[in-house]
Design a protein that fits this description.
Elements lengths: L1 H47 L16 H20 L20 H20 L9 E4 L2 E4 H25 L12
Helix pairs in contact: 1-3, 1-4, 2-3, 2-4
Length: 180
């Protein structure tokens, strides 16, 4: 009788925990697919704009096309490496790796590619038991799962601005890549 109780308990615990871990694993798989598609589309957008138009701004107070591109890199690094990976944040005043300064179009695209690679590596290795860990997100209490979502929203937001900049320069944007 005791063995039946133990086996039943193990079976019930296994049936409850397995779907939870499977959902977390599939979230990461789905997320990585989306991030890869986001990378491909962002690079297509960046390649489409001629280098002599990288300084284009929709208005004087707006960020330029290049600044939007490098801002995506900066924010992707901060969301992934600092908030999810718990690495000390880069110092915006002294760190120039993810800034526009003195970078060619080719260098900026290489920087975006490198930042995506580092982000994808971190997410591939992310401990999904930390999804519900809470942290301060610019004064708001957020979970690490929410940081995953904020990261992709941010990329989409600034890429959308870049798409408008292409149109304002008479350039047809690349065809939309689904699921990103």
């Amino acid at each position: 009788m005791k063995h039946i109780f133990i086996l039943t308990t193990i079976f019930l615990l296994n049936s409850v925990s397995s779907p939870l871990f499977a959902q977390q694993d599939s979230f990461i798989e789905d997320y990585l697919e989306r991030l890869e598609n986001s990378r491909k589309y962002l690079v297509l957008v960046a390649e489409k704009m001629p280098e002599d138009k990288y300084a284009f701004k929709a208005s004087p107070e707006s960020s330029s096309f290049a600044e939007n591109l490098m801002h995506i890199a900066w924010a992707m690094d901060w969301h992934s490496q600092t908030l999810l990976g718990e690495r000390k944040a880069r110092d915006w005043n002294t760190d120039t790796e993810l800034k526009v300064e003195n970078k060619s179009k080719k260098e900026m695209i290489a920087t975006i590619e490198k930042t995506f690679n580092e982000t994808i590596k971190l997410i591939t290795e992310f401990d999904t038991t930390k999804f519900n860990d809470r942290l301060d997100y610019l004064g708001l209490d957020r979970t690490k799962r929410q940081i995953f979502l904020l990261l992709t929203d941010h990329i989409t937001h600034h890429r959308g601005q870049m798409l408008v900049y292409l149109r304002l320069n008479g350039i047809k944007p690349p065809r939309y890549v689904l699921y990103q």
